[in-house]
Specification:
The longest helix has 24 residues, at about 125-145. Helix content is about 60%, strand content about 0%. With about 160 residues, the chain is an all-alpha fold. It has 7 helices and no strands. The protein folds into 2 domains: about 5-80, 434 Repressor (Amino-terminal Domain) (Orthogonal Bundle), CATH 1.10.260; about 95-145. This is Bacteriophage CI repressor helix-turn-helix domain-containing protein. It comes from Shewanella avicenniae.
Length: about 160
């Protein structure tokens, strides 16, 4: 079985986001539900299972849950369901060829799915996810370029004075 590309995963509901977070914890960090609950400070795993069953979790525990799982799918779902675009904060590092190539690949994927969607060959959720990833990638590069304007950030290697 091929490994899942977690950068391309988007949730279609809050419950789905919770399930994907736990899958990520199991696949990438080798954490069981018991261990995730322990890292969140919960008394037992059954509380986490109850939240997973009904798709509800106290909002103050979303960040500890995502931190324990190592991925922010619930936060991303909540923001995108509210019509917001979420991007990772740029580190202010110079983009290399692989970053530009990944953006171009994301553009190609999104346009291919958009064409398939209008031909009735692709699902709306999959197409929306690809378009959201593309917009996030472009916004990340925009912010990275914008950060190069701030004098305290040596994005492109400043002189050592």
């Amino acid at each position: 079985m091929a490994k899942r590309n977690w950068k391309k995963v988007t949730a279609n509901s809050l419950r789905h986001a919770m399930e994907l977070c736990l899958e990520h914890a199991r696949e990438r960090k080798n954490l069981s539900v018991d261990r995730v609950a322990d890292l969140m400070g919960l008394p037992n795993k059954w509380t986490l299972y109850k939240w997973l069953e009904n798709g509800r979790m106290p909002s103050v525990l979303i960040r500890p849950f995502e931190y324990a799982c190592g991925i922010t799918l619930m936060t991303r779902y909540l923001a995108t369901s509210g019509g917001q675009l979420v991007i990772d904060i740029p580190a202010g590092k110079r983009a290399d060829v692989s970053d530009i190539n990944a953006l171009h690949s994301s553009f190609s994927d999104a346009m291919g799915l958009l064409i398939k969607f209008y031909d009735g060959q692709s699902e709306a959720d999959e197409t929306l996810g690809a378009l959201t990833r593309l917009m996030g990638g472009i916004a990340w590069h925009r912010e990275n370029v914008n950060k190069s304007l701030t004098p305290e950030l040596e994005l492109f290697g400043g002189s050592d004075e």
